[in-house]
Amino acid sequence: MATTMQPQFTRRDKLIFRLAQDQVYDIAIVGGGATGLGLALDAAARGFSVVLVESHDFAKGTSSRATKLVHGGVRYLAQGNISLVREALYERTTLLNNAPHLAQPLPFVMPSYQWWETPFYGIGLKMYDALAGSAGLGKTEFLNRDETLALLPEVQVQGLKGGVKYWDGQFNDARLALALARTAMSRGALLVNYCRADELLYEEGKISGLVCEDTQTGKRYPIRSRCVVNAAGVWVDELRQKDGMASGANATRPTRPMVAPSQGVHIVVDREFLGGDVALMVPKTADGRVLFAVPWLGKVILGTTDTPRHDLAREPLPFKEEVDFILNESARYLRRAPTRADVKSVWVGLRPLVKPQDDDGDNTKGISREHTVLVSRSGLVTVTGGKWTTYRAMAEDVLDACAAKSLLEHRQKGVTTHLKLVGAGMAETHPRSICSPPGMHSYGDEQAAVSSMPGAHTLLCDGLTEGMVRFAARYEFALKVEDVLARRSRLLFLDARLAGSLAEQVGEILLQETGLDPEVHAFVELSRHYLFLPT
Fold first, then answer.
1. In 3D, which of 203, 197, 109, 208 has the Cα closest to residue 161?
2. 16-62+175-252+367-404 has which CATH code?
């Protein structure tokens, strides 16, 4: 039973003071994305002492750049990966139950333009329903032409035969990451963003902790721990290489990269291009990829691509062919085709696909989407791969691996299955759909606390008030303009030009709250980056 709690302060000086204390933690986690934050919550909920450091902001990387879908993986079913689909469907329901203010069911329609598509895809989706069982969100339905048009009023009419309606989930990824962080904090975990893990500590050849640097001050802090988990997502190989060098493993066999990065590009346009609150899904585009048009926070997300990427840029740019692909494929399925002039924002995420150790190829579409947990000879635990939907199962697998190697004691798993996240106490009130424009609904049962903040009624733009910015600084770890406009609110992802225009105002509020440089000009440049569309 969820109860409303007073939000906990996340003042930087208090967090750094705790970090500086001489303590031996049970587990130190490197990486503040979905995987690391989910692990911090699970470990703290089992009673372990936990510290997590993140070099940038929580969910700054891949975990804020998802397609915003909580799904079992329809395409994995087509690949015959039944176990992955079954696990993801179970975790989908668990996530929706534990964060109903941030994750909700969403109907999808696959339009059919060939006579065989409706029965072919419909039968597969009926299997999807059967695998979900009691965890299903709604029944798959075969649609005729008129029924398809009623649900997708802006779909391409010419040649339309009918369609198939099925159900999956949708969520606000960055705010879910924040809810994980704050819930872990409520269980005693120490989480510090803008704190980079620089080196590993060893005793008698075994890892005994790490050294991190506060990137705001340059000050370094040693952290002693029984277990160190590398959960840095697409960047895990950097710490693995350091471990190999320090432990001498590279002398006998070089540490081979685990990750084959895959780039996914998403484009945001106005809601009018899709119409309604039903998503469009094309299971097989001209080159075999999947295309989505998903309503989200009052806009529509178009995507995504799956392109090999060999660098690990923190703000990767889209390739020209990726942008062209999304717009061209959208034109085939939408009555009014969006152009580059219609784009409100474009963002790129790097997926940490686990690379087979004997594979040097670039076909990321064929690489497994499952996660992998490895333990090095020195005891460094590395986890990567997977997807947002299964973050909780990944955390359990990591703790199982730690116990199997005697790095941590075994404690009963499953403690997070019914653990409501911060803000989830309003489950019974049926919060507004995530398809709706941004506003107070994403705060769940903390709406009253946000409304009590100074400036709560001073509107900066639709869906964002001065009070929300102050709440982000006091209770949500926000230090910089980017933290607020990209991840506490999602404005950068929805309308980059509008977000850039608010940088000065938001920066002034943050400076009052934190006394730290909010990096206004850096954010203005970043907002232009999100409007970058190659010519």
1. 109
2. 3.50.50.60
